[in-house]
Each structure stands twice: as C-alpha cells, then as structure tokens.
C-alpha cells in the first residue's frame, strides 16, 4: 500500500485523511508539517531520538514467545512487549518523537488529549524531559476511572483539565484540546496522541510508532527465520496497530488483523466494523454516527479504545482489504486479561487484552504452527480498578480451562 | 443575483448586521419567533447554525445552544424546514453555518440542493479550509449557494487574499484567536485584522467571533468591515431567560435595535 507522502498534504477530499479544520488551525498545522518534513530526514534529530529510545525508554522491547498461548491455539504466538517500555505503553514512542520536535521548534507550551491517561502521562513525561510546560485535557469520566494516571501526570508537573462536555471521554477531550489550540495556536504545540486527526498527525504518529513493527520484523526473522502469518493489534485511534502493521504492509502474505472495541455488543467503539465514512476531528475516516452525521458516543471497558473514530490509514487498509478488523467484547477482553495473567504472569492493558482475545479466537482456525505476532501495547496496572469493579455479563476471575 | 452579493456590493456598502442563531434553540417554534423578531427589528441578514454533536470551533454558549436545539428535535430536516419557514416571510439573505460531517453524510450535492431549495443563500462549513473543500464549491455554485470561508488573524496575507477571492458570498473573518463567545472588549488585534483585510481586497468580509456589544459591532463596521455577526451575546439571552420566552424576545429585539440605531447615528 502506498502511504501518504508530502504531495498528499496538498490534496483535498476524495481519500481518507485530509485536514478538515477551522481556518485558525491551518497555520499551526502547516508549521508542524514543515518541521516534521524537515526533521524526519535529519540525521541529528534521529540520533537524538534513537538515543532517547534506547537509553531512556528501553528500546528495543523484547519479543516473547508464549508457549502456553501457543499450546492453546496450535499457533506460535509471539508477544511484542511494548508493555515493558518506559511508562508501560507504546505511547512513549510518539511523545518522545513529537516532544523532541516541539523542543526543536522552540514551542513554549504542550497540550494533549488523553483517554486512558497513558498518552497524558507520556506527554507529561515529554514536557518534563524537554522542559516544556504541559497541560492535559481529560474527560471527567476518564479522570474518575484512571485516577492513578492523573496523579502521575501531576507528579511530572503537568496541569490536568477535566472535560465535562459531551460524554466526558476521549472524543470530548480532543474537542476541548482543539478549542484551546484555536485560542493559543501561536506558542502551543498540540501533541496528538494517536495516528488520527488532521494531517500531518496520522502520518507523523505512524512514523514515530513504526519502530514497533520494524523491531518485531527483525526479531521474528531472527527467532523463526520467516515472517509471521498474522499480525494482531488492538485499534482505538489506531497508533499501536499502525505502528505494528507498518513494517509488514508490503509483505502481501502477512495478514494484518485489528481488534476493535466491541463493548457490550450494543454500545461499542467499533468504528470500522460498524461505522460509516465521515469527516470529524480533522480527518476523513470511519466514525460511529447517526443518520444526519451526528457523532455517536463510543463505549469500551478499555478507556483507550473508547473513541467513535479511527485513524485514516486504518480506513484505507479496511477499504482496500489489506487489513481486517473485528470487534472484541468487553467480557472477552477481560477473559483474555485474566488468562494472560494466570498463564504468562503478564497483566496486559485492557486495550491490549482485546488483541489477545482475538488472537485466541482466530488462532484455532489458522494453520498449525502459523506464527502470530501480537502487539502487547501496554501493561494493565492502570486497569486494576476497572477489573476489580467489573460488573459485566461475567463476574470475577475467569476459570481457566486446561 | 445571490442575495448576499446584492446586500454586500460595494456601492451599497453601509455595514450589514447579521445576527447568528442556532436553528431550533430553544425549540424549533420559539427559534422561529426569535428569528422573526430579529428580522422585524431590521437585521440585514442571518447566519443560521445547524446543531452538531461536537462543535470544535464553538465556545460554551453555542455548544449549549446546539445541545438545547438537538434535544428539542432540531435534526437537519427540521432545521432546513425552519429555513423554508423563514423564507416564507422574509427576503433577507440567509447563510447556513454547519460542520462538514452533516454535509458529508447527506451527500454534498444533496445537501446543497436541499439547502438551496429551503431558501438558503450561502453555506459555510466551519471545519473545511477554502483550499480543501473538494467537491463542495462546485456543488454550491451549481445550486446557487454563495460560498463563505473562514479567514483568521494567523492567516498570512497571500492566503487571506485567496480566501477573499474564493468566497463568493462573503469571507467570514474570525475576529479573535479563539472559539466563538462574547468578549468584554474589542481587542486591538481585532481592529488591526479588520484594517489588514480591508487593505488586501475590496471583496466583502464580515467579522464574527467575540463581538458582543452594539458598540463593538459599530466600531468594526466603521473600520471598514462589510458586516458584523453577533452570536453568543444573543444566544446568552436565550440561555439566561430559560422558559421566559417573552423576556428573550424583548432582549433580542432591544439588542438588534441598539445596533441599528448606533449604526445610523454613526453614519449621520
């Protein structure tokens, strides 16, 4: 698949992506786009970023072969351990990259939206590291369910603004961050958290997250001497998934599979499986919406998947058939969470647990010994409260069938 | 000729006052009465919003207005029917202000057709820059709708000149760096912006966002703008009076009347 390049920035409607923003945001987006195009090929920038990724954040992250998950499915299941990255999720890749860019651009203020709080914490980290004052917009509902992450952001010196409009979750946090940016475009860098939003964010975040798939590709070739049969990742906005998929896009034999938030089956966040093309948050992509185009509220047990849209590159992959996307229910994700904890001693983020659940379902239908690479995008410490309080259609710790 | 073009042509230039209303706020029926009152008091044209779930360019007052209207049942069909109602009793130019997904979902051509059939004269998609509008300009033109694009203080001169050229009805100059909402004072940067646009082009532009008092409106016109839009200040009256519809009607009449008489006094 052809990815966006510089000339696409100049194109308008007709494909996914674009830059659908009120005029006051055109100037700051143009400034970021120019800086990104300049620095993406700059050796000095890359050297600095590589240094931080290796010595500060802990890259490369391990690729772990899970004998027990493999035995359950008959496949060879490998977990890309982004949960072991500094701060416990893939978000660090993006905030180090964009934080360094903002620093090079001389920006004096960082803002960001956050859902689960992971991106908020990762932005607070970048603000601390690069010495840029940071303000985070977070839905009041999410503040409630992710209190520890709010505390972490504050410990790193960030200010957290609760957002009470709409559903008071990620969508509304983005609305409020955009409103703030409209008012203070001149000195402020909006550090967007996922591979979505207006250009150049989808492409830039993909660039910084593609390290996941690049490493994993090398690691799997070292371990197995062949490419994986399937790559699986969870998809909210879609940054960990596009990061995992990107290195395999040209490997036509590698299946790319995304796990969307299936919620409780009625309320969900499965924009690709159940949404329609639309234009929102600066991009042409798939969205949950009503007959008129009013954006619907999403639902997921995983705050990071609780978003009614998806990044435009996933819409392209979905439409072309290069990647396929399936909804995974809250209860299935929770079951996978417990299973991975009991079998492998790993507490996955509830977001990542969606990918584990889908892998276990699909794995049984794959050829035996097919290699499956699962992006374990984050760790589940942030979700313990949610897991404890779960009152869904199944309660408590899942019985594990041997 | 398009009603906005007629209203804003340079030979007629006297400064148009264009109140903004959210269609359907607080209810479709009351919204129609408020709009009729503003026209009775001499509003020259209207900018009319259709409620959207996530209005990212709007401050709290217009967000709340959209929510009230949506709760009262103002979907796109109801809003277009309201436009048709207004057209039945008024010949004033009517501009629609919407977020692009509402156009996209209905289909660009279908939306423009329906808007024109209802009697709208112009269409502004708040989240579509003039050079990313795709098939929208052609569909507007084919249906006789004038185009309106936003221009802001951080828009460089060359781009602003192109926006003024591309806007066939008028350019909507965003008076403040920020979302919609009433401001206490008219900022020096707003004055400079009006002067800059006037220097750039004789083509019509109208200033909105942050204009909250009759004296602001008149000053903006005096500086050379072709028109001025007041939204949040009027909508706050609807919000403040809640169920007391008569009081909202009275305040809105008084505000429109004050702008008109201040403008007249200033021109005499």
Question: What key attributes describe this structure?
Answer:
heterodimer; A: 402 residues; alpha/beta; 6-stranded mixed β-sheet; 4-stranded parallel β-sheet; 16 helices; 13 strands; 42% helix; globular; disordered C terminus; B: 268 residues; TIM Barrel; 8-stranded parallel β-barrel; 12 helices; 8 strands; 50% helix; 15% strand
Task: Tell me what the structure shows.
The complex is a heterodimer of chains A (402) and B (268). With 402 residues, chain A is α/β, with parallel strands linked by helices. Chain A has helices spanning 26-39, 43-57, 67-73, 91-104, 118-130, 140-145, 147-155, 170-183, 201-209, 211-224, 239-245, 271-274, 312-320, 330-344, 350-363, 384-389; strands at 17-20, 63-65, 76-81, 109-114, 134-139, 159-163, 188-190, 230-235, 255-263, 276-280, 282-287, 323-329, 371-376. In chain A, strand 4, helix 5 and strand 5 (134-139) form a beta-alpha-beta unit. Chain A is globular and about 55 Å long. The relative contact order of chain A is 0.15. Residues 1-14 and 394-402 of chain A have low confidence and may be disordered. Chain B has a single domain (15-267), classed as Aldolase class I (TIM Barrel), CATH 3.20.20.70. In chain B, helix 2 packs parallel to helix 12, helix 5 (100-106) packs across helix 6 (108-118) and helix 11 (232-241) runs antiparallel to helix 12. The chains are: A alpha/beta (402), B alpha/beta (268). The A-B interface holds A 12-14, 18-24, 26-28, 165-166, 171-172, 175, 178-179, 182-186, 276-282, 284, 287, 289, 291-296 and B 52-54, 56-59, 63, 70, 75-76, 100-106, 126-136, 149-156, 159, 163, 174, 177-179.
